[in-house]
Hints:
Elements: H1 2-7, H2 12-16, H3 19-25, E1 42-48, E2 53-58, E3 73-79, H4 83-93, H5 97-103, E4 111-115, E5 118-129, E6 134-144, E7 148-153, H6 162-168, H7 174-177, H8 180-215, H9 219-251, H10 259-325, H11 340-361
Amino acid sequence: MIRKKILQYIPLGSLFGTQRTRELFQINPTVPPVREEATEVKIFAYDYDAMSLKEEILTQVEQCRAYKGNQHISWINIDGLRKQDVETVCSEFGIHQLLMEDILSVGQRPKMDDVEGILFCLLNMLYFNATTHTVETEQISIALGPDFVISFQEDGSRDVFDPLRNKLRMTNSKIRQRGADYLCYAMLDMIVDNYFVVMERLGEEIELLEEEVIRRSNTRSLARINQLRKELIVMKRNIAPVRELVNGFIRSESDLLEDRTTKYFKDVYDHIVQAYDFTENYRDMMMSMQDIYINNVNLRMNEVMKVMAIATCLMAPATVIGGIFGMNFETIPLLHNKWGFYISVSTMLFVPIIMLYIFRRRGWY
């Protein structure tokens, strides 16, 4: 009830804005997605085994067929999505039509599927924008086949796979000694590990905001609380379904996954559960911070009312004395005394001083 009374006087629309809210909740799964065609598509191919590695930048999507069934492990990373290019790659590597639609989808919920001998997973990579203080997402789709992994990214300007590329260039690295399923695990592991980097940045923002709320709460603090709560919604929406995604790999009986690789997916599962717990803890912190803000507002309001009450009490003696001497009676004590005025004014000043002393002793201010 108190919270509603306070918030009704705050212009929420102009203070916080609703653009970010619309971005978070505008997804409608019943409406066919409209994805803009990428202006530039980059295709990187990594073909390797325990002894050799071949890196190549492909100029045409048709060149990908050379990496199918060549007795090596192939990772094809496509940055930028065009419908025709995706259809060409999917048809060449036997990726089902339904999976192709998921690749081209917008705002898809993280998921994992096993369709016609292809293990497919879709999730979001997360980044923290230090300029806007918001969490940004990039959808990535990963298709695992017998000896290949194909990844589709929306934005080619950034990803979290640079450490993976460096490991591929090392002859004795474990990833070079293992199959395509281990490569898929390594990609998921790096995506999940990057979640902690984003949460660490959000944690720093929350700590700074907590100090601001405790020291000097204002409407700007409430706006920041509202903004960070929205960013935590983004984190939770993207992290929570990944638990099911990784659990799907653990429970899968596909021949594409070796038994010895399962334990690595269990490690990723532990990490994603921990990341989800962090989001819940941050959410509780934000709720507590909002309560602290409201309590501070109430305290300031009480201080204002206390000062006003004290001022009213201090003025009361002067009002009473002035009212008495202003009455129209012929006989009033000290009315014709030459010291009467000075005595009455002195009384008006002396009584409030005594009241201030009493209020101070009782700790009222």
